[in-house]
């Protein structure tokens, strides 16, 4: 049979993987090495060369979009549809199994799937049945607890008994939640996988049937599988052992949502006789970028090992910019993107990547200032995020009790026992008497028309807002914002919840304090600082993102960037405590995942890679002096070109070579004695750059040598 049409699009390593004999196969596919191509061509090879029926093949991936694209590519190669082949996400295939065998799975025929929001509502119903306060038992935290155990294959009865009162209560909630879901025929996402696994594990006849049916199993993004997904795969592949998994241990970055890098690391032990192929030829990035990324990831010890290479050019050096603060960092990045666009490049080919979503705010502000369109990929703009809207609603209500939308938004956030029935009575009174909801609430409290419990809950909210108003009266905007966040309970509410999303929301709330601190209020405005800030936030939230078709700069977190590529990438915030994140320094194994995240970010770049860090950054509502990320020290110095203001210099991070101008535009000279508000008195040792990027090196008597951006340092000549 002529299979040249299958091979002509593949390199040698890809051909070897695609045409390998059946059996357990592990394909370590580096970034940009064509992993999806290998998987799709493997299916074509099995069908055309080994005469395997598509009905005997199961292909699993992580998104419906990826599954559809994979099916389309396979049909294009084969020249005919493969509608009988089981191809889809883990959840999709699990759902298909449960629909076909609902009775064996212990489900009603018409069982319904709970999405994330539906699951939260069912958890709230569970708490209500157990008479538990949502303020003390946050539904999202419980959702994380339940799903985490399900993803590890644990029902309530499988969790060891404990004397810890809180853990025992969580187990009771889990047990009651399960009973309610079973009673009403409801299945959440984690339950789909666990129930499908139990169906096959506990039913020998069904297990044998599907083991015989699926003679070949192919898995994409294998490094992202969790415990129950891998157990499910092992169960199905037990008989024929023809399992073809494609993944990259160096891109395993989702431990926070259950992914286990251990799965790919122990695959060879679980399937003795596994053949391993390494796809190391990269078709995306320049040689310099790949060499830099390889050097960083090579510091991880828990990896199977591979080294990306390309037949392409060396390309440009990795450019490093040390900013004075986060504003200087953002201005530099936007300035470089504008220069890139001025050469005829598309804005959409430039991406700004960051470790924390809260970092997007400063970039958004600078982009808006210069009128450059942008889109926050896979997320909302800063002032559109739910937790920020909640915080702003509190501030608006403090500023004006007549703000009905703000009243409705936060009257029960965090949960304080004010239900929909009470709110409807407040709305009805406000409509009937044509007053604001705040006034309606006061009237109902004093008229005794509500239940004692509702009256108390509503009274507590009214007192809270009045107390915040008293405490913040006359204080600077930043203190008003900080006090509101603490007194309202918003920060504590999200801090109690578990998981990456909750931590991100806390970071966003802390960034709101920074936004208030940096807000420049024109004293000649008719508005006070709080009103002006709220107006600014409303206008920014209303200034919508670029349209889908519009050429715009891409902003995204490093987690969102996986699988994407851009001609020019700005990897920002490379500082200890931010990236790697402070959490990674406290939890075993997290530092290596942070390094993998850095590797993912670096390998998104095709032609240009900029890395930036700030010497001073406002984090968690306060200014902090930072240290460059350890990841910077892992990049070979000969690959780095340091950018200093309007020019570049080589060769190393710790070089003492400085380009020096004799005098700044405001007349400051070498040797001048200066005073800094925080660092005290010092002597100017060096001056470099011009305009907004002018930097001065000052040797301070108290803290030693510091490089400062002159525009922000507010140095006083002595």
Question: Notable features of this structure?
Answer:
single chain, alpha/beta, Arc Repressor Mutant, subunit A, Rossmann fold, 5 domains, 8-stranded mixed sheet, 28 helices
Structural class: alpha/beta
Q: What is the CATH T-level topology of the largest domain?
A: Rossmann fold
Q: Would you identify the CATH H-level superfamily of the largest domain?
A: P-loop containing nucleotide triphosphate hydrolases
Question: Rg, please?
Answer: 29 Å
Strand composition percent: 15-25%
Distance between the termini: 87 Å
Explain the overall architecture.
By secondary structure, the chain is of the alpha/beta class. It folds into five domains: 4-98 and 194-279, Rossmann fold, CATH 3.40.50; 112-184, Arc Repressor Mutant, subunit A (Orthogonal Bundle); 288-381 and 546-649, 3-Layer(aba) Sandwich (Rossmann fold), CATH 3.40.50; 383-539, PCRA, domain 4 (Orthogonal Bundle); 673-717. The chain has 28 helices and 23 strands. α17 (386-399) crosses α21 (452-472).
How would you summarize this macromolecular structure in one to three sentences?
The protein is of the alpha/beta class and 718 residues long.
